[in-house]
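Dear support,

I submitted the protein below through the web form. The confirmation email said the job was done, but the results page showed an empty box. After a refresh the structure appeared. I'm attaching both so you can tell me whether what I see now is the final result or a partial one.
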Amino acid sequence: MREYDVVIIGSGPNGLAAAIALAEAGRSVLVLEGATEIGGGTRTTELTLPGFLHDVCSGAHPMGILSPYLKTLPLEKHGLKWILPEASVAHPLDDGPAVLLTHSVQETAGRLGADAKRYAHLIEPFMKNPEGLLADSLAPLGVPDHPFQLMRFGLAGIRSANAVANRFKEEAAKALFAGCAAHSILPFSRMLSGAVGLMFLITAHMKAWPVAAGGSASISQALSLYLKQLGGAIETNRMIHSMRDLPPARAYMFDTDPLQLAKIAESVLPAGYVKRLRSYRYGPGVFKMDWALNGPIPWRDPACLKACTVHLGGTFAEIAAGEDAIWRGHHPEKPFVLVVQQSQFDSSRAPPGKHTGYAYCHVPSGSDVDLTDIVESQMERFAPGFRDLILARNVMRTKDLYAHNPNYFGGAITGGVADLFQLFTRPVLRLDPYSTPNNRIFICSASTPPGAGVHGMCGYHAAQSVLRKTQGSSRRP
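What the results page shows now:
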């Protein structure tokens, strides 16, 4: 049996990014995937009717197009095409027009009435070198390349979403910020929930949040094709249950959650470290719906059709109350719903004249409640007549998401809670978060810094850890 330099368990964006970084450095790499297809959170399939292509997990990719590492790779040569909408986000309101988050700071600010200057004052300082800020933010703790800018962001973002929103006077700006902050899946009273909202606003002013032509699976397909060009190998249908299932290698990397790492490598890791892995906090899950539609979503404000992502939830207070409720184990009657309308910009997603719809809301971990009526009521609230367009629907509760991807424990799609106590210590507190007490075992999933998102940076930084410990080097993005 061939011995590889590195074997990677899991083929999500982080596992594939790690494999590419190692292969670029001349290492022999094998990626093992337990499912029948690669991709982890970047898979696309016909969930409803033939000809309707639905993204199973991630649907819009602000971090994918901006990733400091992925954007250095020749992925376009391997079939990846980003489609950029006119606006990243539309946030419809019950009274008044929808708020649009567009590429221009001034254009976005101009829609915020009395808060225009306040919004510009908040965002514009970070637009002097947003690429540097993003690179420092997507790196593990260390000496940043742009310390003063990162410090400024930290002072603004370490606060709660409630505190950041208090600078605004009117509902439009508060609601726009609420939708972005809700991506943190944290109560708005928690520190760092403000940082997530702020970062999503900044990314939208760098590039419009794109969708991948043909589906999110094209991201993983492009990564795999480039990896194979470099000499890397991928095997699917290779579910790993213990270290005995693995081929010989100098090092092993786990693009898995901490629980799977603990289970598979328990025999070669100290009991104390395994115990800490098993105490990792995952946080709330999601309830997801996909629809085959007989036409575009009939938003009350047609401007919503300009955005790939639509945030449903109304006012800041309403969204804040709903996000707080799920942390207390409740299902809000009017939850924050994240909608992506890929087929509005990518006609390959549905038959001629038809469309796809994608939406999810946050729920308590492990929830088995069917929220179909509640989610569709939120859609009807802002898009009257939506139900009349539904040709077929697919529902994924937390158990379905977990069955699809074992990294989604309890239906959590973010790799674990990213609060002040776990953001910098994921999966456990170590100087090198990608290493373990066994110098041949590493972890590279979204449960390591910098966390969730289709950016591959967890995998890239983990690969640097492997190269350092195996006396190698790699080019930096």
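Response: this is the final, complete result; the empty box was a page-load delay. Residues 473-477 have pLDDT under 50 and may be disordered.
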